[in-house]
What does this fold into?
Amino acid sequence: MMSLLLKLHIFTSFIFILLMLYKLILLFSNKEKLATFLSKNRAYNTVIDSLMLLSGIIALFFSPALKESWFIVKIILFMILLPLAIIGFKKQKPLLVVISFIGFVYLYGISETKSPVFRSARSMLKKQIQQDIEVSDPIAEGKKIYTLTCQRCHGEDGNMGVYGAKKLSESKLSDAEKMKLISEGKGVMPNYSFMPEENVKAVVDYVNTLK
Ligand code: HEC
It folds into this structure.
């Protein structure tokens, strides 16, 4: 349900940006056509805008990302860009529209990479794990990986359960099934295919200690 909502949000955001690009091109090339396009397609535009906003707002309430910097940048920027775009199109000010368009594309990039500077969260995580993990005790190693990687969704004790994830202490999955799920991901849970098997094994061993 949650992953469907996120997919809907990403899809409508993408359409929103495409539509904006089209309107932007019309603003520069053919203002009359823009006016006709706007009045003819008002209903479709409203549907896309509302779906994007609604799915975004509902997802917001369940998001584990609320405290992360890329997410805060995203929300603030969105609240600046939206009025800018609306005023730009209403008053036909190309500069405003261009600025807000670039802003929206940047927003899309932030959301995809989960980083204000587009450094992919995955590659940072991978580096961090490689740097930090030099522990000989596998449970301690698993705990480190867990804190770095899994805690934001599953919570310190494994019971936070964002997006409807089961409490880890009550999981009925076997070790092999857990390892498969971690490597391949499922629904909202990302895959950790970059993690070497021994890291995955260590984190599963740690998860099994959660009560
Ligand atoms: C973005 C949030 C998120 C992150 C990060 C995350 N998970 Fe999950 N996890 C989920 C969700 C959501 C589910 C439920 C998936 C489903 O069934 O559709 C889940 C399910 C699981 C399950 C299966 C529980 C069960 O019995 O059904 C295990 C085990 C698990 N996660 C372990 C981990 C481990 C270990 C990590 C870190 C390497 C991790 N998760 C990182 C969100 C996350």
